[in-house]
Automatic annotation (TrEMBL), chains A, B:
Its EC number is 2.6.1.42. This is Branched-chain-amino-acid aminotransferase. Belongs to the class-IV pyridoxal-phosphate-dependent aminotransferase family. The lineage of its organism: Bacteria, Pseudomonadati, Bacteroidota, Flavobacteriia, Flavobacteriales. It catalyses: L-leucine + 2-oxoglutarate = 4-methyl-2-oxopentanoate + L-glutamate; L-isoleucine + 2-oxoglutarate = (S)-3-methyl-2-oxopentanoate + L-glutamate; L-valine + 2-oxoglutarate = 3-methyl-2-oxobutanoate + L-glutamate. Gene3D superfamilies: 3.30.470.10, D-amino Acid Aminotransferase, subunit A, domain 2 (3.20.10.10).
Amino acid sequence: MNHLVNDIEVIKSKATKIHDVDFDNLAFGKVYTDHMLECNFKNGKWEEPKVVPYQPIILDPSAKIFHYGQSVFEGMKAYKDNNDDVWLFRPVDNFKRLNISSKRLAMPELPEAYFMEGLKTLLQVDKDWIPKKEGSSLYVRPFVFASGKGFHASPADEYKFIIACAPSGAYFAGKIKVLIEEKYSRSANGGVGYAKAGGNYAGQFYPTQLAIEKGYNQVIWTDDVNHENIEEAGAMNIFIRINDTLITAPTSDRILDGITRKSIIAIAEDKGIPVEVRTIKVHEVVEAAKNGSLKEMFGAGTAAVVSPISGFGYKDKDFSLPELENNYASYLKKRITDIQTNKAEDPFGWRYKV
Amino acid sequence: MNHLVNDIEVIKSKATKIHDVDFDNLAFGKVYTDHMLECNFKNGKWEEPKVVPYQPIILDPSAKIFHYGQSVFEGMKAYKDNNDDVWLFRPVDNFKRLNISSKRLAMPELPEAYFMEGLKTLLQVDKDWIPKKEGSSLYVRPFVFASGKGFHASPADEYKFIIACAPSGAYFAGKIKVLIEEKYSRSANGGVGYAKAGGNYAGQFYPTQLAIEKGYNQVIWTDDVNHENIEEAGAMNIFIRINDTLITAPTSDRILDGITRKSIIAIAEDKGIPVEVRTIKVHEVVEAAKNGSLKEMFGAGTAAVVSPISGFGYKDKDFSLPELENNYASYLKKRITDIQTNKAEDPFGWRYKV
Ligand SMILES: Cc1ncc(COP(=O)(O)O)c(C=O)c1O
Ligand SMILES: Cc1ncc(COP(=O)(O)O)c(C=O)c1O
């Protein structure tokens, strides 16, 4: 039976796959819920979104997604608290960023109501899939891509907006070791680095594979001119603690304006931790590692939350970071996670009830 | 009936769409032939390619092509001469470049035989679709993309290689007006600009749209640091004639190593035209336009062949180029097209009989 929830049409799946899933041993993003949101852009406008059974996407071989990389996405997490209430974290910021990304890739922007109502409806329909276990959550993946046809290198005339969800465990298992990149780069000045564009990620895979072969988990991206500035870490923004000061690079057209990043800055400032948003030179981090003032490094992003770094490689040398009792990373991770999961007050007004 | 051609399995379509096509009025890349080549990468290896009816591609919503932009492509043209023989132009170079692109995006490289035998078989099966009309050809689009599933930002474990074909007319109608880019850029040092990666094209669309709104057809890309050097023109390499010298930028990790470009260089040198492969400064082109030594500019690429430029915009000023009787662009275009279509001798050994 089709019915309307929040004015959104819902077509329920005939059966559920939920009993096949081991909720105690969830990988990241590998199993998908019973439904998805689907919304099509045709004849110059977005049609009404629908919740439909999770199902294959059928595309002509000439669909521009295959040829010209018009695709953007977002990453969010939904949490369920002890009262079975469902929470999102700053979802309107994800909506806004999706449109910023779309605009840069010459893709049509979505109406806020289609995104927000569609998202809420989907989460209500697939509510049973939201894990409660600590460290687990429902990873929510809104994405838009070019479904319109043609080999001419120009924007497509049709698009699909989909939200799919995956109950997920941790993104990284434990602390990570990173490699400061000296050769490759992820984004250009005047390029698309600030957008969550699919192509930005494909470009990172090969250099990341090379780093993994050398024993690292992740590349730390530097500027593409001289590789002198520390910019970002894969799907995370990066924070560096020198003595008691927490430093992160300013956002720019090369760096994603991470929602976790700006929340961490606010939490740290609220706690009285001195925060500097400024260019971070590779050489100052190396110096700080040598003279002992480098106390912590961590990545921050929705998927990996706050991901502490155990050490870094640079110019064939490895530098390790100290194990601090009272470290910022643990404090900030607990604080943001408690807000996200409704275990603590939310003085910032970030939590969003579904 | 299935049968083998060149050891490739062929599954013929039940009906043909060829009678729906107006071969006298072909757009670029808008109608597709009856068949396509399909080849799947699974369990760590490429399975045997097959020619199958042109048909939709069915993908899970979590297929990595939608999320992380793992897609690369090639563009080639097939021509039919007066004896109904079919010709390609330097196809092994396209094969090699496809693998160079794949490697940079952490995608599996193809065996040469799968590409070449698959391509030939497809063209034999769809031979009737190759236009004979001057200026028309069968545009051939090999592409590879990530079909494997997962929201983890890492390379997919499954891929599809497809070749689809579109009988096509001219890419641009007439001479083009270009805008020298001062803000946006298409590629980073250490990035993926030298690869025919889908994401590189999506990133160009928005700045190109802005240029089109200002009355230009195409952006001329400059370096991402100071926008001082002229690098490339959308889906074409760029050539500039100052006095009698033909100049083109050297290829690099930011610039695609165009097959048309290197063929044009060889034809020009063979003709005794002085050619310089070197960095081209924006200011020298502007100076040359002012003092009259700038004689010609043109783009070179498979889709657009040799595409003469009538003028360029820079810093809100327009500069127009002279109309020369004996211009290089016309000579080079006729020379390369005659070789491609078997209307002239091919001293270079570029033509490839299917
Ligand atoms: C390149 C990049 N940087 C940073 C982030 C972190 O952003 P957020 O905290 O909004 O998830 C992400 C992941 O979303 C990312 O893909
Ligand atoms: C970015 C770019 N530059 C240059 C070219 C020209 O290359 P080719 O002559 O091999 O077609 C193309 C098109 O293929 C291209 O996409």
